[in-house]
Design brief:
CATH topology: Alpha-Beta Plaits
Helix content: 25-40%
Strand order of the largest sheet: 2-3-1-4
CATH architecture: 2-Layer Sandwich
Strand content: 25-35%
Number of domains: 1
Radius of gyration: 14 Å
Shape: flat
Distance between the termini: 12 Å
Structural class: alpha+beta
Amino acid sequence: MIHITQLIYIKPGQEAVFEEFESIAIPIISKYNGKLLLRIRPSNDEIIDSTIENPYEVHLISFDSDLDFENFMNDDERKKFLHLKEQSIRYSIIIKGIEMG
């Protein structure tokens, strides 16, 4: 099992476009043995310490394998709407990890 943490930084005024993309992309996760474990919007008063900009959203997603994650990223339906992602997201940071224990 792999875990993907994504820090998402939105372009000003593009929140609705981002939500439109998410409404398409998030349901596709389960098609590839994935699960959205956590989706949060941290506010500045919730940050204890930071040396980076506060992200608009943080996602924690799990997939059974690297291949499942790659297949999700290459999903044809998701790709049709990447223009919404490009229009709304300034940049994102993806952190890939594995389950320990």
